[in-house]
Amino acid sequence: MKSGSNVIRYVGIAEAADKVRHADRILVVGCSGGGKSTLSQKIARRFGLVYLSIDRDVLWLPGWVQRERGEQRRIIEKLILQDRWVMDGTNSSTFDIRVPRSDIVIWVRMPRLVCVWGILSRAAKHWGRTRPDMAPGCPEKVDWEFFRFVWTWEQKFAQRVLAGLAEHAGEKPVLMLKSRREMRELLDLVGARA
């Protein structure tokens, strides 16, 4: 399901808000701590979409054990068949099946320090408990490996996201949010700020 164009069709916040208001399936990607889960859940509530979390529904088993990649893909293949959803999660290795099924892609591309602050404040809020967008049996924690993952995310993974979107998005609109202000503006425009 390749687009062939290899050009990403970026849209502004106003156009993206219009697309979100009429979308049945929205894919939200980005680094941990950037706010993609919060954004996804607010949009899901506002428009009555099913909220799907890669972390909660696909990737993790209790005790922070990752599912086998083949099983992850089979789960995603089933989830994307649903009629109406917001899916929160980046894993670019499944862009070939998730991006074409989406009506719009929102890339929450926050600065590194915003993401670090996000994971630290989230950890303080949920420490030792499992947050709602995480798989059961995975209590909140921040270890050195996860901190390093977030700190180096832009260097290691942004190019994969760009390549995956260029290959699979075709004419689909892609909104890149680079600040909390832009995120608030989008939520205001779609009436999901609460």
From TrEMBL:
InterPro entries: Cytidylate_Kinase-2 (IPR052922), P-loop_NTPase (IPR027417)
Domain of life: Bacteria
PANTHER family in UniProt: MODULATES DNA TOPOLOGY, YALI0E33011P
Protein name as it appears in the record: AAA family ATPase
